[in-house]
Write a structure and sequence with these properties.
about 280 residues; alpha/beta; single chain; 9 helices; 8 strands
Amino acid sequence: MIHEKIEIQLKGSEFKANFFTYFLDNSPEIDPERKRPVVLICPGGGYGMTSDREGEALAIRFMAMGYHAAVLRYSVAPARFPEAMLQLASAVALLRENAEKWHIDENKIVIQGSSAGGHLAASLGVFWNKAFVAERLGADSEKVRPNALLLSYPVITSGEKAHQGSFKSILGEEYEDEEKRKALSLEYCVTKDTPPTFLWHTATDNTVPVENSLLFFQALHSMDIPAELHIYPVGCHGLSLANEETVGRNGYGIQKECESWIQLAGDWMKNLFGAHTNV
């Protein structure tokens, strides 16, 4: 396994992100030239922290399924938009720049995000080719383009069904500006250039209402962008793998009915990238 910790700091910024790799090394016994898809994971935490429960454990599961994985511990409050998203874009560029070294298929870079991490992942999904991203990073837009999104109970809307805490954290003093809030309400930002997306949510999520996933799915569907949405009838917010591996100290986070999401996501990626994808 290629396991590294790499610091990401944007030019002129005081904030730093940590990027952790969980890459399967090639073997001369199996396929020394193998290139794998990679899942880049953005844990949730309301843009106030990044949850341990939604990071490494997911990376290990994706590795067991044959994917490379990476975890981005991005900057949170007092960092404001677009700091974390630009760190994520830099991480995607880093994956492409090192594709040969890390045995990555650079056309199969998937961003997974949970809760506020889902908002972060989806933000790059809708803003990757905007001029302000390329200008700030000094990088060609295609280098930071995600090929697909996997969104777990994502924060999407700043409207009636918003998780207001996430938007307060990411906007700070600009939270009271209605136009600023709406600009980050991602159901309005989907374009033909938004990548294919897999979403899952629970109908009983009382922290980030299921309408967040519904709104994003509807926006994708209206643009004829391939999308798959699974709504589980029961389950609280922040389930991660929904099993004992990611249970909280207080016993929170086990929902057997929802454990299937990660296998469904793996099947979706195989279908998206083709039957002969290297996983």
